[in-house]
Amino acid sequence: MIFYDLRGEGVKIQVMANAKLYESEEKFAVDTAKLRRGDIIGCVGNPGKTKKGELSIVPQRVKLLSPCLHMLPHLHFGLKDKVQHCRCFIHSCLCTYLLTYLLTYLLTYLLTYLLTYLLTHLLTQLLTYLLTYLLTHSLTHSLHGAEIFLRS
Fold it and tell me: Residue 117 sits in which domain range?
């Protein structure tokens, strides 16, 4: 029996892999030998609970979906090098700030461009339509009983 902790989005669930409940014991040995810390896996099985009452999955099949190529720091010890820890923290903060700044800048530029283009295009179309109408139709006005004609 092998226990795995699946973590994601702040939730933890346990995989309780048992060779007797697996498809076959040979496949159990092969599949579990491939798994390492930080890998992304897929499980097919039944939900259950351990003796301690933890929510678990009892798998009939486990598949390695994506191996972890960069070893994660251990949960209990974390990064021992404080300088590297600070660099990682600053890097993540800086990336978040830069991403927010760039997105804001790009959206502002895009909206300004679109509004300018749309307003210019709309006003041009409206004035063209209005002038075309005025020039192609004769307008009759009554000014103190006298008719005035505007012709093109």
Answer: 81-152
